[in-house]
Design goal:
Length: about 220
């Protein structure tokens, strides 16, 4: 398996959003966090290698690219913004990953996978750094709802606070899913928008690993 330090430097070199859109909560995950999260899913939980990975809200593709280096079978990188996906395409072409990562331009609400069309032994891992719902209050729940409709396991980043945690506990029960693990984490956000006052800022988040109740 590729060393973390090598993967971080590959991810660091990838291109970010050209003109990030605040209403889509576009920011690029920092390279260290992308690799830590994908290692958590792949190296510690064995949920990336040979799996079909869906990256919901893939943006410029940092999580997708990290999954490719951890030997995912295929990765479908879904985003509503064609300009973000153009950057993602440039990144995957530069790294020669065009046979592993497939960009799909779609609103997450309209993206569908027909589970029955895949061989039974293919597991689907969804990984997502969704909008936290700061701009559109319910954005994060649409991402989860969609991921639960076709995945075996979901890794999702959410703000670390009790209200969010309590909400998630109740919300996921409706879909017959459970929280399998909570990994407290700090994202480093670079200044992206005018209203950001600091050059970088740490944000406390939790990486949630969700599983279906019947697995
Ligand atoms: C916080 S950014 C994360 C980007 C990337 N995954 C990363 O970690 O660097 C959230 C992404 O979700 C996308 N997004 C927002 N709303 C969406 C929707 N309804 N359907 C699909 N993608 C959406 C945005 O365009 C943006 O790229």
């Amino acid at each position: 398996m590729i060393k973390k330090i090598e993967l971080i430097s590959i991810i660091q070199e990838t291109k970010g959003f050209l003109s990030p859109q605040i209403e889509l909560e576009q920011y690029c995950i920092d390279a260290q966090s992308a690799v830590d999260i994908v290692y958590f899913a792949g190296a510690e939980n064995n949920d990336i290698r040979n799996q079909l990975v869906i990256d919901l809200g893939a943006g410029t593709g940092r999580l997708s690219i990290a999954c490719a280096y951890l030997q995912a079978f295929y990765i479908l990188s879904v985003d509503i913004d064609i300009n973000a996906l153009r950057v993602l395409k440039t990144n995957i072409n530069t790294l020669g990953l065009e046979n592993i990562i497939f960009p799909i331009c779609s609103d997450v609400n309209h993206f569908e996978i027909e589970r029955q069309l895949f061989p039974k032994n293919i597991h689907i891992t969804t990984i997502e750094n969704p909008p936290f719902g700061v701009q559109t209050r319910t954005a994060d729940r649409y991402f989860l709802q969609k991921a639960f409709s076709f995945s075996n396991v979901v890794y999702s980043i959410h703000l670390a606070n009790q209200k969010v945690h309590d909400f998630l506990l109740t919300y996921i029960k409706k879909f017959d899913w459970r929280i399998d693990y909570v990994f407290p984490f700090q994202l480093k956000l670079d200044k992206v928008y005018e209203f950001h006052t600091k050059k970088t800022k740490s944000v406390d988040v939790n990486i949630y690993k969700f599983k279906r109740n019947d697995e």
